[in-house]
Design a protein that fits this description.
Rossmann fold, 3 domains, alpha/beta, Cobalt-precorrin-4 Transmethylase, domain 1, 12 strands, 4-stranded parallel sheet, flat
């Protein structure tokens, strides 16, 4: 059996930064994260044991003791930041610098009167947060089917950004279709290279692998995308959260096992999986 581990598997720069901020703040009185700090149940549970509570809604702040809120790497809207401050909570901003860059673009371009186009999943917290920095109308596009001529006005100006974790090929298709309408649109490249590199490496590994393991939270959008990308190349692709989901008897001596992991998967979970896959050989 051969194991190929992706070099890009695990925490990305932004998640690592946010996690370091939580670790630094541990021990502070009344510590909260605004939404789960990362899309990884195990990590969130470990922090809960250390006293870090998850706040899901601004309204919840009225019923908890004053303290410090950590903003996760996805970021939040401008209004939420103001509301948290108004309620006299301290803020530790764990927004990834790449997401912050999008907030700035959207804030500045919408101030100039441009309609904002966001390529991304409308339900994803990062997209919801980005929307919250626009002072103009916002159009969210997730699929090429949604790119319709009647949505756009040649008299208007547009600014396009993408969710950092969006599939870059899909984004390209959306942009190509949009450009055919000859509207005035300023396009900013905002897909994170960490995502692109992880996806490209996943394609290469899953082409060679007989079986592919994708490790990451069930609700992590970048892990789900990785799974889809790998599954398109390697029929026997398994999405697992931890070693507990691993079905060991599906692996044989002749297998080439590819392993990759989403941006919110801690190193120790990846190592446990590798160790257990190796044990199947013993
Ligand atoms: S994927 Fe990229 S943009 Fe998103 S948190 Fe990680 S480094 Fe930041």
């Amino acid at each position: 059996m051969k194991i190929i581990l992706a070099k890009t598997a695990g925490f990305c720069f932004g998640v690592d930064k946010a996690i370091q901020k939580v670790n630094k703040a541990l021990g502070a009185k009344n510590l909260y994260t605004y939404g789960p700090i990362i899309h990884n149940r195990q990590v969130v549970e470990e922090y809960e044991k250390k006293g870090v509570k998850v706040i899901d809604d601004i309204k919840q702040l009225d019923s908890v003791e004053k303290g410090t809120i950590i903003i996760r790497s996805h970021g939040v809207g401008k209004q939420e930041i103001a509301q948290i401050k108004n309620k006299k909570f301290d803020i530790i901003d764990g927004t990834c610098p790449y997401v912050k860059r999008i907030h700035k673009i959207v804030e500045q371009e919408s101030k100039k009167g441009k309609t904002i186009i966001i390529v991304g999943n409308p339900k994803h917290p990062e997209v919801v947060g980005i929307m919250g920095w626009s002072s103009m109308d916002t159009i969210i596009i997730e699929d090429t089917k949604q790119v319709k001529k009647e949505l756009f006005d040649r008299d208007k100006e547009y600014c396009l950004v993408a969710q950092t974790t969006f599939n870059y090929l899909k984004c390209k298709e959306i942009v190509n279709k949009l450009q055919k309408f000859e509207i005035r649109v300023m396009i900013y490249e905002t897909i994170c290279s960490a995502t692109e590199e992880r996806q490209l490496e996943a394609v290469e590994i899953s082409k060679k692998a007989t079986k592919m393991i994708v490790i990451g939270g069930r609700h992590s959008s970048n892990t789900q995308k990785l799974y889809q990308i790998c599954k398109a190349q390697c029929e026997n692709t398994y999405h697992i959260e931890t070693v507990k989901d691993l079905v060991l008897n599906v692996f044989s001596d002749n297998d080439i096992i590819g392993i990759t992991a989403g941006a919110s998967t801690p190193k120790h979970i990846i190592e446990e999986v590798i160790l257990n896959v190796r044990r199947t050989k013993l």
